[in-house]
């Protein structure tokens, strides 16, 4: 059984039919990428899975449990973490406060400390700046903070929305290396990304979304060599 | 002794400032150096400071605009006053005021909660719109309602006093339409008002520093990120808004027990009064609890002291508003404050360490 299984998901924004029968699944330990152009429905898919938007039809099964109707805040204790698009950090709080809020749903103080040390190990820059106000961090640092905050909830699956958005190529490489490391240490990753080349280079499998439909899916390496994909998304 | 954090120190300073203010005022009163006009302003300025602290919890900490806090004061004032008038002869002063206070605060909290249920699920400025309407509706209803008791029980009417059908011998009018409630015992005084201000400060300061407070502030900073870290956004919005309304209700209780005739007039409970509370909060610094207290006290007393200036009064008042705004928010003024005041406090700290 897949860790996360989405079946025939439909979402409407008023009259607009944003997602049409989107189905995909994520196995334990994988990196799965959802790629596609602007407005294809990538973020909508992610927000529906994390409970921020309500689906009009379809089902979301997480760890053999139907979570379609569950509100977003109840998914976090189940081990699903969400790194929202556009580096949404708590701008008026310090780095440390941001990270501690990431562990909001956890009670055991010793374990939280341990997670904090792990996050600091992974992002040494966050340790240096732990008392700095998050809004004054650079874009890359804010992305690291958003990821670190998600890791503080000790997730089994982490859903990342456009981690490369607005970052310089060097930072994009750094962020993707970190995503790979996070995955290696045992966390499943669902990645939504416009930067198809980067996403396919680290993913195991990928789904291509176009105007609210899954039009193609398969092994990431194969998709990378797919003529259609190369033309439409890799600019070759 | 456990070392205090910076925030805890700052909170203690706020409380100490209120206590000092109280002691200074008491000394002036005891030595007869305070005019009776100024003495009459002490309770009002304290309950406006309380209301401003409550509003700051909603506007500054939760980040939701409320334009109906005068309406919440109105609820607290009327509900507690009705109780006090009804039990005026039956209960001694102290338990009567305590019960009236609890009833006023509970009623306001209940109404804040009920308003919050539909509105706080939404994002955007809906709370401002709904609370604005709520304040006006409450004021207008209380202006139209007639209420009285006799030995048969409670009588209500929206027409006039006669149509309540009160028993002529045992009947007692409580709310007389637009004439309001007369004969509320003046149970509140400056000391009680200051105690309630201190209690509301302690409640708000502790809430802000708690885990719940951080959850509330994270909603203000970023709703989606808050939700995706597992915070129940609606629950914490409700919590903060209900407490905020209840504190405004406490201010209302002090209000009604400080004057003999309580009427739901626009100048006390209307739209302008809510805006005035918002001015206290904004000029004191959004999210800055101490600032709200200081701003409310200064800005309430100032127009009263300027009464002698006659028609220039509001002109000077508005200039003061602008100057305060510049002092609080302009980058140059903040730089100046940082440079000069921090030097001062550093020197103070060094000397204290010696």
List the helices and strands and how they pair.
The complex is a heterodimer of chains A (236) and B (354).
Chain A: E1 4-13, E2 16-26, E3 31-36, H1 42-49, E4 57-62, E5 65-66, H2 72-75, E6 80-83, H3 95-102, H4 109-122, H5 124-128, H6 139-151, E7 157-161, H7 169-184, E8 188-193, H8 196-202, E9 205-210, E10 213-219, H9 220-225, H10 227-232
Parallel strand pairs in A: 3-8, 3-9, 6-7, 7-8
Antiparallel strand pairs in A: 1-2, 1-4, 4-5, 9-10
Helix pairs in contact in A: 3-6
Chain B: H1 6-30, H2 36-61, H3 69-86, H4 93-119, H5 126-144, E1 146-150, E2 153-157, E3 172-176, E4 181-182, H6 190-209, H7 211-221, H8 223-228, H9 233-256, E5 261-262, H10 266-269, H11 271-284, H12 289-305, H13 313-329, H14 331-353
Antiparallel strand pairs in B: 1-2, 1-3, 4-5
Describe the protein:
Chain A is 37% helix and 27% strand. In chain A, α3 (95-102) packs parallel to α6 (139-151). With 236 residues, chain A is α/β, with parallel strands linked by helices. The model of chain A has no long low-confidence stretch (mean pLDDT 90). In chain A, strands 6-7-8-3-9-10 form a six-stranded mixed sheet, with helices on both faces. In chain A, strands 2-1-4-5 form a four-stranded antiparallel sheet, with helices on one face. Chain A has a domain at 4-89 and 155-232: Rossmann fold, CATH 3.40.50.300. Chain B has 354 residues and is mainly alpha-helical. Helices cover 71% and strands 5% of the residues of chain B. Chain B has 14 helices and five strands. In chain B, the strands form two sheets. Chain B has a three-stranded antiparallel sheet, with helices on one face. Chain B has a two-stranded antiparallel sheet with strand order 4-5. In chain B, β1 and β2 form a beta hairpin. The longest helix of chain B has 27 residues, at 93-119. The radius of gyration of chain B is 22 Å and the shape is globular. The mean pLDDT of chain B is 88. At the A-B interface, α2, β6, α3 and α6 of A face α7 and α8 of B.
